[in-house]
Amino acid sequence: MTDRLKDAAGWFVLLVLTAHVMQASPVHRQEQEDRPVRLNRIPALAFAGKSSAWLVSEDQKKVLFTSDGGSHWNETTNDFGQVSCLDFIDPRNGWLVAVDENPAHLFRTTASVFRTTDGGVSWKRISRPASTHLMVWQIKLTDQLHGWLVALDSVWRSQDGGLTWQNVSPAALRGSPVKGAFLGSDAWICTAGGMVFRTSDGGESWRSQTVNPQLDFVDIVFTDSKNGWLQTPLSNAYMGVLYRTSNGGETWHLEPRLENDLSLTSVSFINEHEGWGVGQSVIAHTFAAGSSWQLSSFDMKDWIFWTVHFSDSEHGWIVGSDNLYYTKNAGREWNPTLDLRRLSSGRESLSHRD
C-alpha cells in the first residue's frame, strides 16, 4: 500500500475514532480540543518475560528493544521494508514480518519473515510466505517450531519455526481476519463481521460462530483452552466492552460496561480471573474475569491508553498517547520509560531516564 493511501486511510480512521471517543467522554472534550489528537504511535510491539519489550517505530523501519523494564533502550535498523508485526516467545527468540512494497501495483506486496536469536540485536530473513498480496496483521509463535500468521484474507501456519508456511484458512471465512489467540494446536480467529473461527487440530478443520454480526471485533485473548475474551471496537454503540467465554468459545456472553460508561481499548489477562484494561483516561483491574472492575488512580497525562500487557500479577506495560509506562509492583506505580513524542520526532534520546 502506498504512503499516500496509508495517510488517507489513517486520517479517515482518525476522524472516526476522535468523534466517537470525544462523544463517549464529554468531561474531557475541552481538554482534547486544546491538544493535537494522535493515533497510536506504536504500529506493533511485543513482550517477553518480566522486563523485556520490543516496539516498532512509527515509520515502521526500526525495532527498539529493552531488557530492563525500559531503563535503557537500543534500536535495530535492517533492510526490513515496513515492519507490520512481531512476536517473542522468550527474551532472546523472536520473529517479525515486514512488507516490501511494489509502487507499480497498489496491493501487490511481498511479506518476509525475519528471525532473531539474540533478543533483537540482529535479524535474518528466513522465509517469504507464498503470496504476492499478503498483508499480515499478526505473527504468533507458540514455541520454537509452531507459529501462525493472520493476514488480510487468510490464516497461515508453520511447523518448522517459520521456514515454511501453509495456508490453513477456514473454507467458510467471511470478512477479514483481524486477530488470533493461539495455544499449541488450538486457535481462535476473530473477524470483521462479528465471527469467531476455532480449531483444535492446527487448522486442519475449523468451526465458526457468529457472535454479533453488527460488530467488527478488534482483538481476542485466551489464557487457557476454556477462558477467553473478545474486544469490541470504540467506533460503535458497544464502545469497547468485552464478550467472554468459559467453555472454549462454544458460547459467548456480553460483559457489563465499566462504571460511568468508560470504554476499554485493550485488555490483558494473566489467568481466568485476573486482568487489566485500559482506555480513555482509565486504567482498570479485575479479579472477576471482567464482570466487574476496580478503577486505578494514576498521575499520567496521556489522553488515552492504547495497549496494556501484564506478564504476571506484578509486571506490566501500558502504551499511552504520548508515553510508554512500566510497572513492577502491580500497577501501584507506573514509570514512564519512553517518550513516544520524541521517538516520533526522530530525536536521538529515547528514554525518559537518559
How would you characterize the overall build of this protein?
The protein has three helices and 28 strands. A hairpin with a 2-residue loop joins strand 22 and strand 23. The N terminus is likely disordered. The two termini are 36 Å apart. The chain is mostly beta strands. The radius of gyration is 19 Å and the shape is globular. 9% of the residues lie in helices and 39% in strands. The strands form seven sheets. Strands 1-2-3-4 form a four-stranded antiparallel sheet, with no helix packed on it.
Could you tell me the mean pLDDT? Answer: 84
How many H/I helices?
A: 3
Low-pLDDT residue spans: 1-38
- Give the strand order of the largest sheet, numbering strands 1, 2, ... along the chain: 1-2-3-4
Morphology call: globular
Fold topology:
Layout lengths: L2 H22 L4 H5 L11 E4 L3 E5 L5 E5 L7 E4 L4 E7 L5 E8 L7 E8 L7 E4 L8 E6 L5 E5 L3 E4 L7 E2 L9 E7 L2 E6 L3 E5 L7 E4 L8 E4 L5 E4 L10 E4 L7 E2 L9 E6 L5 E5 L2 E5 L7 E2 L9 E6 L5 E5 L2 E5 L7 E5 H6 L9
Antiparallel strand pairs: 1-2, 2-3, 3-4, 5-6, 6-7, 7-8, 9-10, 10-11, 11-12, 13-14, 14-15, 15-16, 17-18, 18-19, 19-20, 21-22, 22-23, 23-24, 25-26, 26-27, 27-28
